[in-house]
């Protein structure tokens, strides 16, 4: 037997629209078999990965909206292209 539950993430901001993501989960009862607990943990791990991917997508979109409002998209794109590289300014 399992108990219904959910993993939920909520984002709020003064400048962007909020969002809430929720994925249903099942949790085994405390007397559940080891196999049921393993399956529940596996489902939880998969849900966390899925939730993180969706959060990253949403936050990237909001960052791009913020940059567009601030007019910094071109500067950020150049910084992203040079990420991890030493950039020498020419005089």
Automatic annotation (TrEMBL):
Keyword Calcium assigned: no
Biased composition (Low complexity): 20-31
InterPro entries (alphabetical): EKC/KEOPS_Gon7
Compartments, as annotated in UniProt: Chromosome, Telomere; Nucleus
Keywords from the UniProt entry: Activator, Chromosome, Nucleus, Telomere, Transcription, Transcription regulation, tRNA processing
UniProt main location, coarse: nucleus
Keyword flag Transcription regulation: yes
Pfam families: Gon7 (PF08738)
Family the UniProt entry places it in: Belongs to the GON7 family.
Subunit structure, interactors included: Component of the EKC/KEOPS complex composed of at least BUD32, CGI121, GON7, KAE1 and PCC1; the whole complex dimerizes.
Role noted for this protein: Component of the EKC/KEOPS complex that is required for the formation of a threonylcarbamoyl group on adenosine at position 37 (t(6)A37) in tRNAs that read codons beginning with adenine. The complex is probably involved in the transfer of the threonylcarbamoyl moiety of threonylcarbamoyl-AMP (TC-AMP) to the N6 group of A37. GON7 likely plays a supporting role to the catalytic subunit KAE1 in the complex. The EKC/KEOPS complex also promotes both telomere uncapping and telomere elongation. The complex is required for efficient recruitment of transcriptional coactivators.
Protein name: EKC/KEOPS complex subunit GON7
UniProt lineage: Eukaryota, Fungi, Dikarya, Ascomycota, Pezizomycotina
């Amino acid at each position: 037997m399992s108990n219904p539950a959910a993993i939920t993430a909520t984002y709020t901001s003064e400048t962007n629209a909020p969002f809430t993501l929720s994925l249903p989960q099942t949790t085994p009862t405390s007397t559940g078999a080891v196999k049921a607990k393993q399956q529940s943990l596996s489902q939880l791990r998969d849900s966390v990965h899925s939730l993180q991917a969706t959060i990253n997508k949403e936050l990237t979109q909001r960052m791009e909206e913020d940059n567009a409002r601030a007019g910094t998209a071109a500067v950020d794109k150049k910084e992203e292209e040079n990420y991890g590289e030493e950039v020498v300014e020419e005089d």
